[in-house]
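User: Hey, quick favor. My workstation is busy. Could you predict this chain's structure for me?
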Amino acid sequence: MLAEIIPLLAGMEQEEHAYHPRPSSAGPERCIRSMVYHGLNVPRSPMPGRARLVLDDSSWHEELTADWLRKSPFKIHSQQMEIAVPDPVTGITIKGSIDGVVTDMLEIDRLLEHKALNHFTFQRFWGGEIPLDYVTQTCIYVKGAQALNPALNEAILLIKNKNTAQYMEYHIIYKDDAAIIDSRTHSNGETAKMEEIVPDILRFAFDKFALVQDYIDRQTLPKRQYDIDTWRCEYCGWYETCWKGYEKEFEELKTDTILPDEFADMVRYYKETGAQIKDMDKENKALYANIKKALDEIDTREGRAGEYILRRKLIKSERIDKTLLTEAEKAKATKISMSERLYISNYMKGENNVQSENIED
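Assistant: No problem, here it is.
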């Protein structure tokens, strides 16, 4: 009863905000086309109730983190302080509100930007992938906070793993319109030195918003930034609008293009590396089969070999037997989705023989 009603209630609370340049949209990963739809006031699909709950959940994680920081020697203040960052070149002003400022025992201020993410995204970032959108957002907040505190040029991008309550922080220095990502530190005490530099970070953001505004003014759309089957598109509120009629678009694409020589070099290298991967994959599968066979022969489910521990687990999975369903039930349960596949063929001169290879995205 309660489990069903909560997502339904969340789904009924659909908040719509007018488009304006926001720090959260400034990074390179946020789709420009979706921003143009927003600016053109094209209606978006309602957000599912569960997705609304996930966003609300992230806000509470931020407050929980702040509550723990208040119990530490660090001071947290200026929470939700509004900032405005104008650009004299484009005339664009980015407005937002910061999560807060943290002051350490030496009275050094650092901007605090908090994110609460799922386990897999958290692991991806700890593995080395740089969250460029979050870094861009953080630097905009630093720039905005400098209006009140010109000496502030450092930030902590603090990321919480919502599944495990682990934390990770990026130490970022904003200087000469560059984000200097000095290091990232895990809550287990492990620190990874990064020294990554992202130049012209606010310049890119302002130019991006200016480009979006140009499309809005001309009432045209940019090319799609992502493929139809990417998770970014699937979670976008303008997915149906954006991809409507794409089959017709696809059929109208050119089919007689003579590509530059660089394409041939790139494809040739791709084919060579693909062949090497296939050979290694065959060898890997053969070794796996030999290991499993060896365990079968000695009736072993778990054991140790040198520094390795081997465990065999019985995995159960469920599937729907379509033969037990009526045609109407099958149609109701079937969801149609589209994806693109690339085929590379090798045309042998002098022979009507085409060898084709299907490449799964």
